[in-house]
Amino acid sequence: MKIAFVADVAYPWIRGGMEAMQYLEAKELAKKHEVHFFCIRWDSMKGSFKHDGIIYHAFPGWKYSKLYKKRRRSIREALLFAIGMLRIFRYRFDIIEAHMFPIMHLPVVKLYCRLTGCKLLMEVAEVWDKAYWQDYLGKRKGSIGYAYQEYAIKGADAYISNPALEDKIGRYGIDTRRIRVFSPAIDEKSISRTKAVKRERRIAIVARLIKEKRVDKWLHIFREVKMKIPEVKGVIIGKGPEEKPLKALRHRLGLDKSVEMLKDLDRKELYKIVKGSYVLVHMSEREGLSIITLESLALGTPVVLPSYTTIPSEVAGMCVVEDEEDIPGKVVEILRSDNPSSYISNRDRLKEFSLSSINDFYDELFSDLNRAN
Fold first, then answer.
1. pLDDT tens per residue, range 232-277
2. Which residues contact 367 (CB under 8 A, 6 or more apart)?
3. 173: how many CB neighbours lie within 10 A of its CB?
4. CATH number of the domain at 2-184+354-371, please?
5. Hey, where are the domains in the chain?
6. Measured in whole angstroms, how far is the alpha carbon of residue 202 from the centre of its chain?
7. What's the CATH class of domain 188-352?
8. Strands 48-51 and 54-61, bridge-based pairing
């Protein structure tokens, strides 16, 4: 079959959990099908090329430094991507898997599918309510964004989401029989190749540096832990518009020598650091599946989450979940333990998120879509 993935961001040029999962899905499917990927042309990318069996069509050009404006995703970038997607009409596909965000491109994709008979799979990683839209964009723009989301999310032949979003998608009047819960996230082969390393008493966080990830709270928690365990180290892995404010906060808290900030790590380097840490503390208030949480658990490093987490219960149930004010104490407890991996619960559930299930899942889904013709 000829399959097209559509998302403005693409791994490894943009490193994030969702980007990594899409890349791994596309890479696996490319072993059996002809797979294309339509995205923005980021720094150092060519316009059209083949990589890991995937044929990329990257347009228009955009710099990562301009992805965020005033600490929010650029609306202009989303608009230009939507206009650029008009070139998909040069090609013919059997299946399009389009990421829901940044939303503006969806009418173009839906028109293409309507005119060509191509089947549309919509990948939904997040669904924002009206209050969140207004908080993110302001009352007027947020209301428009919410209304546009309500329009754009409808009309796909099938939806792929994580378990926490099934009910939210259904609230838009979408037949829940069209929603497939599928969350492949763990690349067992890559994780198994991660060499054993001696654990350091180190707290890690891996996140895009945007305000919703609450890395500032992580720094305050780290300082509280350091007061009880002075030798503890910390590492922040990620990049984004909050980098400068976070560095300034790190300096104000006197943590320049204790907390390292890293970015642009490949998965091999990332896995090594996470595996060699005692605990990963993930403070995000806006999260889908959280790929790094699953990867950390698979590497044997426990994860601490705040009680307000939006991570699905299937994943959170394997983690340590605490009220925010109790997190420093729990982290101190883990750092003082001889076996941090003992703080991982129900580890057998990790097999539910295995990449090895990708082709079986899509074979069944494609068969169902074909029968629906």
1. 999 999 999 999 999 999 999 999 999 999 987 888 999 999 999 9
2. none
3. 9
4. 3.40.50.2000
5. 2-184+354-371, 188-352
6. 23
7. alpha beta
8. antiparallel
